[in-house]
């Protein structure tokens, strides 16, 4: 099934929370006198208190006075991977924190976004990135296409996250029992064409089909091969490759298991 993707040590030492830098350049980030500042301040104090109580219920939480309203954004590929691994650990053990959903966070995000990871995943309804990594608003750029298939719109969306938003991590997330991969394999085996736009997806996945295996094993192996192929394609994009070489970006393949909700690396 592959090794756990950042190891139990990383999960154990992952920061519990992080503070997101506020964009002070934007006028929207500053309270405006016409917007009833006293009421806004009162509201924010109340919300901060509520957030502190919520955090205080968690095991080993910091004192309320030290609890930041906003989380610190992971700045490096390693920090971003640790945060995703920690979030997935919460998800698969039913200990989600549902971060970054509060009124205060929603207000703050009007001024701008500073997400820390691009997740390119399948459209499958069982694998929503914000849920399986226990992240919230403003945390992830999610790009989704069946079978993580690349086209110009997907490539442009990933590039936007990396180049314009300075995101340090691109995660290609495939998953167990992927219907798009199954369709590609079965279409090739039967020779039966799929409806037009679905055939496009199958054509893109076809080069990853593992002909060394049969039946369900072929589909499962092709899921991994497709993840590797998409990851390698992205990592070879010149703008992304330059950042990888400079240590500013990691492009990582990973797979979600429906059976135990674990995300693990696919190298
Ligand atoms: Zn899928």
From TrEMBL:
Top-rank lineage group of the source organism: Bacteria
Region of interest called Disordered, as start-end residue ranges on this chain: 1-37
GO MF annotation list: carbonate dehydratase activity; zinc ion binding
Cited function: Catalyzes the reversible hydration of carbon dioxide to form bicarbonate.
Biased amino acid composition, Low complexity: 26-37
Name of the protein this chain belongs to: Carbonic anhydrase
Family matches, as InterPro entries: Carbonic_anhydrase, Carbonic_anhydrase_sf, TAT_signal
Lineage: Bacteria, Bacillati, Actinomycetota, Actinomycetes, Kitasatosporales
Originating organism: Streptomyces capillispiralis
């Amino acid at each position: 099934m592959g090794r756990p993707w950042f190891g139990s040590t990383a999960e154990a030492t992952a920061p519990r929370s992080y503070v997101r830098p506020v964009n002070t350049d934007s006028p929207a980030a500053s309270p405006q006198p016409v917007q009833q500042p006293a009421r806004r301040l009162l509201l924010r104090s109340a919300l901060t208190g509520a957030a502190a109580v919520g955090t205080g219920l968690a095991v080993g939480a910091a004192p309320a006075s030290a609890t930041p309203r906003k989380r610190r954004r992971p700045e490096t590929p390693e920090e971003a991977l640790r945060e995703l691994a920690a979030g997935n650990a919460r998800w698969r053990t039913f200990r989600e924190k549902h971060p970054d959903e509060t009124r205060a966070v929603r207000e703050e995000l009007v001024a701008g976004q500073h997400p820390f990871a691009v997740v390119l995943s399948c459209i499958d309804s069982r694998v929503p990135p914000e849920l399986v990594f226990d992240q919230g608003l403003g945390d992830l750029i999610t790009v989704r296409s069946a079978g993580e298939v690349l086209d110009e719109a997907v490539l442009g969306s990933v590039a936007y996250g990396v180049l314009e938003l300075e995101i340090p991590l691109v995660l290609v997330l495939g998953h167990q029992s992927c219907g798009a991969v199954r369709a590609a394999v079965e279409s090739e085996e039967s020779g039966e064409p799929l409806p037009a736009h679905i055939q496009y997806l199958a054509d893109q996945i076809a080069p990853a089909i593992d002909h060394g295996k049969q039946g369900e094993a072929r589909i499962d192996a092709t899921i991994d091969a497709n993840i590797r192929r998409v990851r390698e394609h992205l990592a070879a994009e010149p703008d992304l490759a330059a950042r990888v070489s400079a240590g500013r970006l990691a492009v990582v393949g990973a797979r979600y298991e429906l059976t135990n909700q674990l995300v693990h690396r696919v190298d």
